[in-house]
């Protein structure tokens, strides 16, 4: 039986993030100004045709699924990668630390600067449209952050975890990771995340903090053929 997280983009756009969805019942995507995620409803020719017609010629889309990803003939694969999907095995106790502050639209430019520097994954000025983010500042400078991205019924993705190179090794990333996981648990949802399969150090850290491997995942970045 299929799990709701096997096709996380489609299931998010069908449930908790349906209000953000562009497209129709055959293929949907998030607004590119928020995050370039897209998915077809299934692998039928009609759905793949709808997926192919979502992006403009200048746009790329990211597809993520647990199984093989069917690519419409009119789209070309630009990048591909193997991911792992991990899910919190146990609820994280509520964590409090005065250094951690909620991030708002006023922080968007600083958040994008930090994400551009550290490359935690696709990130835009409108990332907060997906969920809450928190950060730590040092002398006014945003030096670490983490937040929430995709949502499905009962699940929230922990994402955007990054620390400025000048402050790595200080435990800020781990602190924010634990904090966001605890916030998700306190809402009654289960936290999950994605990591590159080759990033064994990050995977080991996540396991230490109560996350377990749920599935191997495939990622494809596609764009229209010229």
Automatic annotation (TrEMBL):
The keyword Transferase applies. GO terms for molecular function: acyltransferase activity, transferring groups other than amino-acyl groups. The lineage of its organism: Bacteria, Pseudomonadati, Pseudomonadota, Alphaproteobacteria, Hyphomicrobiales. The keyword Transferase applies. InterPro entries: Acyl_CoA_acyltransferase, GCN5-like_dom, GNAT_dom. Keywords: Transferase. It comes from Rhizobium laguerreae. This is GNAT family N-acetyltransferase. Pfam families: FR47. Residues 98-226 form the N-acetyltransferase domain.
